[in-house]
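Lay summary. Proteins are chains of building blocks that fold into shapes, and those shapes determine what they do. In this project we predict the shape from the chain. Here is one chain we studied, written as its sequence of building blocks.
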Amino acid sequence: MCAKRHIETTPSNMYLTPDTPIFVNRVSESFELAEHDHEFFEINYVSEGSGFHYIEGLTLPVAKGDLFFLPIGVSHVFRPASAQPRNNQLIVYNCLFDSTFASKLADFFAGDRDIIHLLTAPYPEQAWVHWKDRDGSIQSIINTLFEEFVRKRPDYLQMMQLELIRILMHIRRCESGDLDPPVSNSTDIELDHVIDIIRDRVVEPMQIGKFALMVGLSERQFRRRFVKRTGMNYTDFVHKLRVEWSCRLLVSTDYTVSSIAQKVGYQDIKFFNLLFKKKTGMTPKQYRSMENPKST
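And here is the predicted shape, written in a compact code that computers can read:
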């Protein structure tokens, strides 16, 4: 029996007041803070180092440029990659704001249902989201937010509101696919890691959205870059791996065709036979006979 996770709730009044509805800090993450949810919206930006973000039961590796938007009610905690902070500090900027401030932001995006939903709906009605700042533009905005909050010059709340609007507009462009920077070597490595995971778990039901989160892309961007990396779309790639596995089983075992179809992830034997013939040019039985004549 698994022990139930203990989640502490961070109250809004710990950081926010009617006069200060937005709060920004810069934290060197450690192992001291417990997993928690909160009564406010939160934007996290990884500025330095690497580590992990434990969020709603998932473990995501994070590094510089990872950006998260957390609606009210999401449980999470950051952890550095090493218990020795001198080796690799994980520096995260956190921007917190309450529902009143979120409503002011939403007013700017009147008519944009996706952004309004992002700024008004609690979790799980609104999912948490993750993007990658690949050109450093978000880092610049975060720096300004932090400076405005610390110095509190005249009209600093209005200035911070404008900077948050810039972040949200950047998010909207990412979601629409309008921002599509060149694939970097690090992205190639992340995609290769995802491809390895797909190979290892080819039988299990897989949601492409989870893989997109792992590499910090929208689902649309992930699909496009996956095709560029593999030469085929996600579904065709999975079918290819499954058919290749079934070929090995047909030659190396005496399992029935029906049993092999189930082992590689297909419950519909008719669909499997049609797919196999499409990919290999012959039926499973014909393939077995050709590769292993003694089986006939």
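What the prediction tells us: The chain has eleven helices and ten strands.
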